[in-house]
Amino acid sequence: MISSVLPTYNRAPLTFVKGEGAWLIEADGRRFLDLGAGIAVAALGHANPTLVAALTEQAQNLWHTSNLYEIPQQTALANALVEASFADTVFFTNSGTEACELAVKMARKYWFDKGEPERVEILTFDGSFHGRSAAGIAAAGSEKMTKGFGPLVAGFVHLPFGDTEAVKEALSDKTAAILIEPIQGEGGIRVLPDADLKALRAICDEAGILLILDEVQCGMGRTGCLFAHEWAGITPDIMMVAKGIGGGFPIGAVLATENAASGMTAGTHGSTYGGNPLACAVGNAVMREINTPEFLAEVNRKAGLLRQGLEGLVASHPDVFTEVRGMGLMLGLKCVPAPGDVVAAGYQNEVITVPAADNVIRLLPPLNLTDEDIAQAFARLDATAKTIENALL
Ligand SMILES: *Cc1c(COP(=O)(O)O)cnc(C)c1O
């Protein structure tokens, strides 16, 4: 008999009942070090007092109105994001998937309004992940996500990850935009080199097409810059954000230049919940915490510590781990065994990591984890490697 919860997940037999910073407490009392942060969502840790205060204060006043009215919390968050980024304008969603939907619609409407309605194609890349909606799975294009769900939304062209030559060849008078993650998350922490991101920007400029970046996982301070593309010194035309921006409260956003957003006039898009007072009260608190030079400097310092220790782990357990990859606190360990087995061995040692494609486990800890948490990460990942080695004997 089917479970009451639709069985689309293979769930680990763990039930967390409380969170404190980088720690999750299981129903049986065990304390797990959370290096997954709910897949890069709990960017400021669990039960962060500042976020709890922002949420509860707003909850006592007003949860929801509608985008039919002015929402000051939403305006404040949009202003903060515009101030801190390339963007001139922001639309709020409830998730990364919905941000992807709008990014696609925005790019197509841009060309429609420019009198080139045939420009609908979006160039995307192998190993990418843009969410589970009809357009999101078509954008990613992998068999794993799309099989059985056809007919797929048309207009996506799939190319090898970051292959700028393939991009040049794929350009045509149907091309509307390029859509890419600066660092693939689900795809296995695959970093697009700065030079390739710059090359994609140059291709877009030359062809006059739009560059859409999916920073749902790599954005919001995760790499040590507010947004990952800042490292390459370029800016996109459209950017998707979600995960970390709500610190655990569901909220996403599409950021865009005035030019890229020019087709999105009144009545062309909407959302019941997107940008409601509760979500934006939390989003504002997250932005205030993350978007300071001091906070981002700390992310970079901790990232250096973590990376160094992980390199040591690879050196001492070459039969388990072969490579550290990633940037900032978006790190991957390439595994010899199946990543699911390594994650499960981690559970035995009370440490949480997240599997990804390309035989990688992901480390996406809260950005404000402490040095003591990092020391615990090394101890627990070392114990995890030993668990695997003992099983191999
Ligand atoms: C998680 C993710 C999404 C989808 O976000 P949801 O909030 O799950 O809809 C899209 N793109 C990337 C890069 C992601 O990591």
From TrEMBL:
| Annotated N(2)-acetyl-L-ornithine binding sites | 132, 271
EC identifiers of the protein: 2.6.1.11
Q: Where does pyridoxal 5'-phosphate bind?
A: 96-97, 129, 214-217, 272
Enumerate the catalysed reactions.
Answer: N(2)-acetyl-L-ornithine + 2-oxoglutarate = N-acetyl-L-glutamate 5-semialdehyde + L-glutamate
Write down the CDD domains for this protein, in alphabetical order: OAT_like
Q: What else is known?
A: May also have succinyldiaminopimelate aminotransferase activity, thus carrying out the corresponding step in lysine biosynthesis.
Q: What is this protein called?
A: Acetylornithine aminotransferase
Q: Which gene encodes it?
A: argD
